[in-house]
Specification:
The structure holds 2 protein chains of 2 kinds. Chain A is α/β, with parallel strands linked by helices. Chain A has 16 helices and 11 strands. Chain A has a domain of about 260 residues: Amidase signature (AS) enzymes. Chain A has an 11-stranded mixed beta sheet with strand order 1-3-2-4-6-5-10-11-9-7-8, sandwiched between helices. In chain A, strand 2, helix 4 and strand 3 form a beta-alpha-beta unit. In chain A, helix 2 packs antiparallel against helix 3 and helix 10 crosses helix 13. Chain A is globular. The relative contact order of chain B is 0.10. Chain B has an 8-stranded mixed beta sheet with strand order 5-6-9-1-10-11-12-13. Chain B has a 3-stranded antiparallel beta sheet with strand order 4-3-14, with no helix packed on it. Helices cover about 40% and strands about 20% of the residues of chain B. The chains are: A alpha/beta, B alpha+beta. Chains A and B meet through helix 10 of A and loops of B.
Chain lengths: ~500, ~475
């Protein structure tokens, strides 16, 4: 066992349980891989090797004493920089949170820690999750491990790149408009955005509160299901968290079967200008493969899809403009200490601390909520959001799972999406899912002839995770891409 | 031309709850700065609010006490503006769907000036629930923020512009405070910031129905400063309008030391709060049965208690008004009257003796050294003839000073009233012998002189003789 870093989460757990390796060995191997690969990928913002190994040693001691917290005790996870882990920085890849240390665990993180998972570094993102390429990180960009001249996607680009490059068996990310699914697609990993409210948002630094969800990025559907099992369920600290008991997703994968499943292909999704032929082909091929396995293909319609981007950028920026108001340097983070008075402190702290994309969205959000504009923008956007949700409800009367691209193209080159509007338009396939509050998963389904991963998106109704993950498992089997790691 | 003032009040009242509005931190005044804080009330990244249901209940209760329409569906909104006392730079408040809608409060009694006020009903526009902000402290060249208060549940009671004088505004505040205390929804201590008030005032010619230019007054820390600032502002505005000046809509700050208001900001500088629905909280949905249960469990309203005191305790309407001003006093009266068995006499003694003594000693009814049962016992001793009214005053003073039971003091000082005719007769003879002049005058027909002789007997018996017996014996002796 020389290359422990290549193990999936489930494989690592099995190896630990069987005593084939220790958590210390596993983490040491991953740290070695990070040292080798990360200089080219730049996925990690910080990685406290001593703390990781200390946590691994503690896990090994528990296992020796027969007191493992779960069968996953000792498995490391890379954590997106907008999730609170007590005692660690949580900077959202922004200069404005320079020096801030989180005093508490996010609920999702706390639940995974109770199972013995080890937080393994802070991974990069677009600043405050605003962006689709991780080029908007306030610290440095992350590069696509398959082709470092390309972006890894975003905003959870660090999470996706780290998992794809074998620097972590899995990672946590957040998805507000595609921020888990799109980088997962660009980096060739599995990325799940759960139904709104299934995973507690407590401890996730808010970008757009009504759209944000925490989710896993992993190399297999099974690993994603295991992490969702560990995180999901009602949290009294999050008023928007759904009541009731949930879980059993990983166990249900054993019964994965698409016979009789109605696969919906939204016609509007294939009329998008700029949909790359290799992406269209990959989706078509997978639809055919699923049909071969007994699924039934139906055409569905999502007529309000064309309003999704405008709706999203009104609601998300409005919420963000208030959510990001707290970053003023008064209580935590970086402050402009040379400012002369209160107003100057606010202005200079925020002018220096926020990057251009964040400022652009704060200004946009402030504008749409301003007196005299609220009805024309925010109120109309909320109505459009309801119509978009109703589109999906109607579609799910015709089908069980929707099949769609993740993004119109494979990973673009760095700088290619530098025009903000162009970047926003590339979110067309992912943002409706957040607006509707439903679930979606990105599964690797093909590789282009230049070696770039192509993801397939499956979209399920609210709380349809069990069938979504089962279908994803069949896609994973049908794609038969095997275990691949980039040469780094 | 005569002018009238049009006044509306916005009163903030902290709800009396164990924990803050959106987190589990204690809602308590007076702790060391920044010791009652957590990631939620400090607005730390990633923290989320969870609604305090008790605060909602308290707000509904005060709404029910004010006859408000209760919204079965309500919601919270974000109100955005930057200030260091507000951790998130937005306040979670309620914009267009408050918990309580239209209601009213009856005012009367006396205004701050002491002039009697006719009974009047003041409309209430709405009552909503929000979170309080922290407190800024300025030290020379720097400032600090204490966030202990940040996130404390705060009810905002907005009145209709129904008041026409500073006295009416004062009476409205008094009644509102009274109701909050009766319902147990707030301690209403203005010095602790538990009750705060903003005033809107304009003037217009009498008979005009359109409103004049509205001026808002802030920084009012007592009912007294509300009253003073209104007197000042009404006069200032009336003079300005009389002089043909055009007033601007503005916010003014009251300076209590100078007794004047100063411009804080004009309308153009007003904030655009950019309200929008709080996405971190679910709408508040109440069911009719729940509200009905809260309504049924409400304490007796001050108005009803006043009426009951008049009907059942034979006290005058004004005495009933005084006794019910504060719930603790009304409770004290009821407990004492029950122990005494003589409500009317108890009321007289409380109003004339107890309240005077408390005032002189700078105490409140809550810190009164005499428990109501002991006070009632004293009244019972007077009423039953065991001691004279004069002795009772000495006993009362001693009770107030030492906290001893009235019977003990009566025993110790030997103040038992002497009802025995034989014993009193000796004093009567002594008094007649010592005052030949008065006796002569009485016999000459100046019958009022007998009171002097009664006084002499009381003096000789150290106030212990039954005055009725003394009078009867004197009359008998003097023929």
């Amino acid at each position: 066992m020389t290359e422990l870093w290549k193990l999936t989460l489930a494989e690592a757990a099995a190896a630990l349980e069987a005593g084939r390796c220790s958590a210390h060995d596993l983490c040491a191997s991953l740290l070695g891989r990070v040292r080798a690969a990360d200089p080219q990928v730049q996925a990690f913002l910080t990685l406290d090797e001593t703390a990781v190994l200390a946590a691994a040693d503690a896990s090994d001691a528990r296992r020796r004493a027969g007191r493992s917290l779960s069968r996953f005790d000792g498995v490391p996870l890379a954590i997106k920089d907008n999730l609170s882990v007590a005692g660690q920085p949580c900077g959202c890849a922004s200069k404005i949170l320079n020096g801030y240390t989180a005093p508490y665990d996010a609920t999702a993180m706390g639940r995974l820690r109770e199972d013995g998972f080890i937080p393994f570094g802070r991974v990069n993102m677009d600043e405050f999750a605003m962006g689709s390429t991780t080029e908007n990180s306030g610290i440095r960009p992350t590069l696509n491990p398959w082709d470092t001249s390309r972006v890894p996607g975003g905003s959870s680009g660090g999470s996706a790149a780290a998992v794809a490059a074998g620097m972590a068996p899995a990672a946590l990310g957040s998805d507000t408009g595609g921020s888990i699914r799109q980088p997962a697609g660009f980096c060739g990993v599995v990325g799940l955005k759960p139904t709104y409210g299934l995973v507690s948002r407590y401890g996730l630094v808010a970008f757009a509160s009504s759209l944000d969800q925490i989710g896993p990025l992993a190399r297999t559907v099974e690993d994603a299901a295991i992490l969702l099992d560990g995180m999901c369920g009602h949290d009294p600290m999050d008023s928007t968290s759904l009541p009731g008991r949930h879980g059993g997703y990983a166990a249900a994968l054993a019964e994965a079967d698409v016979r009789g499943l109605r696969i919906g292909l939204p016609k509007e999704y294939f009329e998008v200008a700029g949909l790359a032929p290799e992406v269209r082909q990959a989706v078509e091929n997978m639809a055919a493969a699923l049909e071969q396995r007994g699924a039934r293909r139906v055409e569905v319609t999502l007529p309000r899809s064309k309003y999704a981007i405008a709706t999203y950028y009104i609601i998300a920026t409005a919420e963000a403009s208030a959510n990001l108001a707290r970053f003023d340097g008064i209580r935590y983070g970086a402050r402009a200490h040379d400012a002369d008075d209160l107003l100057a402190t606010y202005r200079q702290t925020r002018a220096r601390g926020f990057g251009d994309e964040v400022k652009r969205r704060i200004i946009l959000g402030t504008y749409v909520l301003s007196s005299g504009y609220y009805d024309a923008y925010y109120l109309r956007a909320q109505k459009a959001r309801t119509l978009i949700r109703q589109d999906f409800e109607a579609a799910y009367r015709e089908c069980d799972v929707i099949l769609a691209p993740v993004a119109p193209t494979p990973a673009p080159r760095r700088g290619e999406l530098s025009d903000p509007l162009q970047m926003y338009l590339a979110d067309i396939y992912t943002i409706s899912v957040n607006l509707a509050g439903i679930c979606g998963i990105s599964v690797p389904c093909a590789v282009t002839n230049t070696g770039l991963p192509v993801g397939l998106q499956l979209i399920g109704p609210a709380l349809g995770e069990t069938r979504l993950l089962q279908t994803a498992r069949i896609v994973e089997q049908a794609a038969a891409l095997g275990v691949r790691f980039p040469n780094l | 031309m005569n002018y009238e003032a049009v006044i509306g009040l916005e009163v903030h009242v902290q709800a009396l709850t164990a924990s803050k509005m959106f987190c589990a931190c204690a809602n308590r005044f007076g702790a060391e700065p920044n010791t009652l804080v957590c990631p939620v009330c400090l607005g730390y990244p990633g923290a989320l609010p969870v609604m305090n249901a008790e605060a909602v209940k308290k707000t509904i209760e005060i709404g029910l006490m004010c006859g408000c329409a209760i919204a079965l569906r309500s919601k919270f909104d974000r109100k955005s503006y930057f200030y260091p006392d507000m951790p998130k730079n937005y306040q979670i408040s309620q914009y267009d769907l408050p918990l309580c809608g239209l209601g009213h409060l009856a005012v009367g009694g006396k205004g701050f000036s002491g002039d009697p006020l006719p009974d009047k009903v003041i409309g209430i526009t709405r009552i909503h629930l929000e979170e309080d902000v922290g407190k800024l402290n300025h030290f020379g060249r720097s400032s600090g923020v204490d966030y202990n208060r940040a996130g404390v549940p705060l009810m905002e009671v907005v009145s209709e512009p129904d008041m026409r004088s500073a006295d009416e505004a004062y009476a409205y505040l008094t009644v509102l405070k009274q109701i909050c205390e009766y319902a147990g929804v707030s301690s209403c201590d203005m010095e602790k910031g538990q009750m705060r008030c903003d005033v809107n005032v304009s003037v217009r010619p009498v008979g005009e129905t359109k409103l004049g230019t509205k001026i808002e007054i802030k920084n009012l820390n007592s009912f007294r400063s509300v009253h003073r600032s209104l007197l000042y502002e009404i006069e200032r505005q009336t003079e300005a309008v009389r002089a043909g000046e055009k007033l601007r809509q503005e916010t003014r700050r009251w300076d209590d030391a100078l007794g004047q208001t100063f411009v804080m900001r004009v309308k153009e500088q007003a904030h655009d709060y950019r309200y929008f629905p709080e996405p971190d909280l679910m709408p508040v949905v109440l069911d009719e049965a729940q509200v009905a249960a809260w309504r049924a469990a409400l304490p007796e309203a001050p108005e009803a208690r006043r009426a009951r005191f008049v009907a059942d305790c034979q006290v005058t309407p004004y005495d009933a008004h005084v006794l019910t001003l504060e719930k603790p006093l009304a409770d004290y009266f009821e407990a004492a009257a029950k122990a005494a068995g003589h409500p009317k006499l108890t009321a007289n003694w409380i109003i004339t003796e107890l309240l005077r003594e408390l005032g002189e000693k700078n105490l409140t009814i809550d810190t009164c050294p005499i428990p109501p049962a002991a006070f009632g016992k004293l009244i019972a001793l007077v009423a039953g003839g065991a001691i004279t009214g004069k002795s009772a005053k000495d006993v009362f003073a001693e009770m107030f000073a030492s906290g001893k039971a009235p019977e003990v003091i009566v025993q110790e000082k030997g103040l038992q009233q002497v009802n025995d005719s034989g014993a009193i007769l000796a004093f009567v003879d002594q008094a007649i012998a010592a005052s030949p002049k008065a006796v002569e005058e009485y016999r000459a027909g100046k019958t009022a002189t007998i009171q002097f002789l009664v006084g002499q007997v009381m003096k000789l018996s150290r106030g212990k003789s039954n005055p009725q017996t003394v009078l009867a014996l004197l009359k008998e002796k003097l023929g």
